[in-house]
Amino acid sequence: MKKTFLFSHVQLLFFLFVSIASCAGQEKTGQSKDSKSQAESNVSDADPYFAETKTISTSYGPSSITRNILQDRKGNIWLATWEGIIRYDAVPSGRQGKTFTNYTNKEGLRRFHVFTILEDSKGIIWFGTIGAGVYRYDPSAGQAAFTNITTEDGLAHNSLGCIYEDKKGNIWFGTQGGASRYDGNSFSNFTTKDGLCNNDINAIIEDKNGKLWIGTRGDACIYDGTIFTKITNKEGRGFENVRSIIEDKKGNIWLGGNDGLWRYDGQEKFTNFTKDFVGYIYEDKKGNIWTSSAKNGNAGYWVLSRYNAMPLPYNKISATQILFQENMFFGILEDRDGGIWFGTLNGVCRYDPRLPDGQENAFNWFKKPALSDLLPYEPNPYKQQYNNMLGKWTAIISDNKKFKTLELLEAGNYLLIADGNEESGKWNIADAQHISLGDAEYRFFFKKENLVLIDGKSNEYEFAK
Prior knowledge:
By secondary structure, the protein is mainly β. It folds into 2 domains: 4-364, YVTN repeat-like/Quinoprotein amine dehydrogenase (Methylamine Dehydrogenase, Chain H), CATH 2.130.10; 370-464, Immunoglobulin-like, CATH 2.60.40. 1% of the residues lie in helices and 43% in strands. Strands 1, 2, 12, 13, 14 and 15 form a 6-stranded antiparallel sheet that branches. It has a 5-stranded antiparallel sheet with strand order 3-7-6-5-4. A 4-stranded antiparallel sheet has the order 8-9-10-11, with no helix packed on it. It is globular and about 55 Å long. 40% of the residues are buried.
């Protein structure tokens, strides 16, 4: 049975491996309400997995789980993270942005981690959270840009795994309590009572024939607008815990989840490419298929892979391994300049595919720089220390090899001491400088016995903030 939830047009993740289900139909009438602010939250309105930060703007990326990534029509990069909603500023083509802005902190939004993002055909951006429902962002609405939508407005559940816009302009919300379809005026909810295979939904897409493919924590299914049908291969087996579904440029449907990576050719033929768990599938502008997957069934080690585009049939193509790490990789995005972004356990990374596959400098991790160095200017070893004025010393010692990397502390006042080793083997104080580490870049280098602070590059021994 259907339930319709009325909603005013003006109003308008799960942890790691948790999310996503299938579809059916319910309706119920409710009253529209104004957006909820953070001030209305109480002690019980809390997310135990939210990564608390106070930062609003920074040149560094998030340091927590980043589940999904979107580039909007203006070129801004939006991140769904455990720290909330984060935007990376748009810049002219071919150049890197400079600022990450945490809108959860800036706008005082409810402190729940964000799982999924969609920009619809009208330029509205939707953010699905785990526990706080949906945030609708209207860039033209000024101070009232963000509106919070929850079960009180008709949403099936306040924890979401995906958001999708169909060809008619309906917005579908895949939640942990079924699928919600919003037509601009009301919500229609679909659950197992309507034939949905499972209420915990991970992925929804519409194929070229107008049918919805739905991946759930149980079986995947197809919805033709009337009934839900379980998806099975030629052996009659279903596809469990499908996390990601896409339709490629050729009309093939790709499914990734517990059963690995599969492609459906539209002619009742399913082809398997890997049995490893697949968390995300993405097609780039060239038709290459990118995936994030657990390596050899080991959930602790993940691979970013690319299946190169080639003419059909290509049943036996193998993946190119781009990155293999003790990590987890999540949402994937190709930006306007061809860079490949992907979310990780510890933030976000941008890969430049113009460089050789797997080359280290092809990856930008957007991390706070570390205190490190180039080779010393002279053959004698050096010793450096810095003191954060809190009384504790930390030292790095070189043996004519590269210094060990030491993560820099937050901006503030420090004392840096450099000791030069004379041929006698005795350590003598070369110099001591009080330095302030702010947002600007500072470089230090040894020049005989003196430690010199400069702003710029040096062809002598140096290390940089």
